[in-house]
Give the backbone structure.
Amino acid sequence: MSHREQQIAAIVEEIRACQRCVLSRTRELSVPGEGNLHSEILFIGEGPGANENRTGRPFVGAAGKFLDELIHAAGLERKDVYITNVVKCRPPGNRDPLPEELFQCGGYLKRQLEIIDPLVVITLGRVSMANYFPFKKISAIHGKAHWIDGRMVIPMFHPAAALHQPALKDFILEDFRKLPGILEEARRRKFGEEEEEDIPEPPWFAEEAAFPDPPPFAANASDSAGNQSEGEPPEPSQLSLF
């Protein structure tokens, strides 16, 4: 077993024994995450659903099947990526994780990111994007890549959103099809030579100013749908439905 495998295995054991918050009292199995520990791409979902709670694996229900389709649309396979969630135990009734639950689980996710060290992080749903973009609406920034702390971060709609709001499906597919180009740009920024300043950024790139630093993965509960612009997808009201 490699050092990286040992480190992740230790986190998995900690999560399985975790009693840090009330979610541990109602779970069947915790869901630490799974996938390629050397992947350049890491997906962060919101929290386990009913199927995940029974199996201990992320994204194995209907939303998981759609995620597999989306990954394939990006020219990848599930074995090529790593998948985890902001909370590792199922919130009762698929409600949004509470701030205390997000805070208690935040350390596990931070360590997973440090060990796997992906070039691209894809947040799935508004809860998982809140640590990077706490005051943004997912309908406004989905599919836009942001260079943060040496990696690309791309907020995406949660796959479950399309199951309940079919109008979102085309938006989600379009976003996932950008991934090969985003990954190449991330490699260039991380490992390539500097380009001339007057070369335009790719159309999907959105440079951000400095971000506020909220507690680890603290959801922005006050984020509302607001007015939608023409051609903008609807703001999903609940993305934690699996």
Notes: The first strand starts at residue 34 and ends at 35. Confidence is low (pLDDT under 50) at residues 196-201, 207-232, 237-242. Strands lie at 34-35, 41-45, 82-85, 120-124, 146-148, 151-156. Residues 43 and 83 are 5 Å apart (CA to CA).
